[in-house]
Hints:
Number of helices: 27
CATH architecture of the largest domain: 3-Layer(aba) Sandwich
Number of strands: 24
CATH class of the largest domain: Alpha Beta
CATH topology of the largest domain: D-Maltodextrin-Binding Protein, domain 2
Largest sheet: 10 strands, mixed
Amino acid sequence: METVIDNESDTCSLEYLMSTIVNYRHLFNVIVLVFSTLLYSGCSEEGEISSHREASGARIDLRLGHDLPVDSHLHRGAVKFAELVFQKSNGVINVEIFPQETLANDHEMIEMLRKGELDLAIPPTAKLSTLVPSLQIIDFPYLFESHEQAHKILDGPAGTTLLNQLDIHGLKGISFWESGFKQLTTSTPLENADDLKNRKFRIMRSSLLRDQYIMWGAKPLVVDFNKTREALEKGIVDGQENPLSTIWGMKFHTAQSNLILSDHGYLSQVLIVSSSVYQRLPENLQRVLIESGREAGVYQRKESRSENNVLKTKLADAGISVVTLSDKERQILKSRAQTLLEKFRHQFGTRIVEQFIQEIEDDKQGTPGELILGLDADMAGNSALSGLAIRRGIELALDEINGQGGVLGKKLVLRARDNSMVSARGMQNLEHFSREPNLVAVFCGISSPVALSQLDFVHQNKILFLNPWAAATGIVENGKKPNYVFRVSVRDKDAATFLIPKALKESKNVALLLANNGWGRSNYKGMTTELERKGIKATAVEWFDWGEMKRAAIVERIEKSGSRVVVFVGNTVEGAEFVKQFSKLSAPPVIISHWGITGGEFPRLAGESLEKVDLRVLQTYSFINNKNSRARELVSKYKKKYYVENEADIVAPTGTAHAYDLTLMLAKAIKKANSSDMSKIRQAMESLGRFDGLVRTYDPAFSKTDHDALKVDDFFLAKYSSGNLVPLDSVEK
């Protein structure tokens, strides 16, 4: 359990008096700000700003607080920011700087910003994580390999996504600044990773940092930043982590005898402005703050890096022992904390995690000792759980494969890229993977339209294309010779053969409700053929687009048609909205759904409507109540690797099971081909023979004429029970 030493709210009469004066002064500034805003509301050019200022004599005074001393890189960056703002606003805005928590500590300054009692601040990202948990990802151990990589990612789409999340909390993120890579100081020598055991380390208030030290065997204690040196001097803690500039500026080295250069984490700050202040400024002055903040951030980072580079010698000269942690020991620390990414995935948000992973991997160079598997799927959109399920199935299989020495003496490595179910993005991802020199296969995701759009490129470039989810019949039955696509998943032609008889058991009055895309049309063809074969015509056929807004009219037409059962083909968001609409009817029809709805957070989106509608969903595999020994073993590994409590918490289980089997089949084919050439692996996939998989025993999985491994007898229906998808026979009646 972490210990907290945090007397941040202590006050005395003098401090109270000063804060009162500051608040009245700030009230005056706000009045000036409002007055100035009214004057400048029609101005858009810098010349107009200047002329209005000269005419009115008004000036906007803004206060900026931070936590480091005046001789720090952070303060120099703040001074640069103030100079740029004054210059770019032609003297309209004056920024006054309050260093070293003069006004308040970081947490208090953040709250002052939210209330509009302070204008600007530059807190560490970890101290904003109580508001925006996803910001903690920046503190993830050994996330970045270099300053350049950190800057590239934080200044790119991933960083922008993080900054935008501050908006709903009364804050406007301007730019990321930095203190640099964190090092360790201790009171006693630390030569290897095991020496961290039972040591007490001061940390900022952050659940990620807490768990990082626990996984390293140490004991984390939360201590207020300005009380850290005192805690070190009194032996309350054995050590702390900070960049060299902070260690020097706060004189932590005077209370510690050992400095361990570990580069184990990256400490970033965010220049933020109070939303209420920002929104009262005219657009031209808003731009001044943004442009100045970004420009000053570049300057500040250079100052930070320069300062940190010279401090190794200064600290050694000051008498502290300086030791560089070996690459071997760094790798041990990295591996011990690696599972934190999955533990915190849902706090960070799967979209953020996948953005960071993708952008970091894009910045890396592959090694000759690796074979690459690509995954092009929805990793960040409305069906992101489908991509996550596929990722996890591949990863679980790779753990087994690489644990046994890999294939061809090489390690198999997964690279995932998000397409958010957009075909153009899927094509970009496929082109990216095609440039990988060691590529052996690309897995697709949930979206049939994306997969269908990629078929020509796949076959022109002879890319082995493995499908663990997308169901459109034409993905595999594509007319290409030789065919590079192999599927362990539902095929729409078979789905129709399964779903229509299930619907007819309820009523002959069957309506089809279909997504207006390649997947929906594939199902329409199969389902109308199956109905005609039984001499029945659908009582209603309704089509909808993504983001459909006329759901009520569609449901009303289905009700008026007399349909008592609806076969639904769509994904999570539209599925949830239609279920809500059907639940409003006095006698809702039975809904039998294709499995697209399971790729996202369907139970949460559908809410209480699920209790009012009889919804049944196509599935091929479930871990719930599965007594198979291999299933139980995989559930155990899944729980440990991804921090889930039971099998019901396994998201989109069919995606995981299919991807797991496909990955093991691929490894067997590579060994059989004795080559990483995808043309030869393709031939080996057609002649794998018997394969004992998780979903079933495939005998064989594929042949030269059939690249679909699953058949109708592998399908079953499931229902949502307490938010979990349970096989129909297992649902309590």
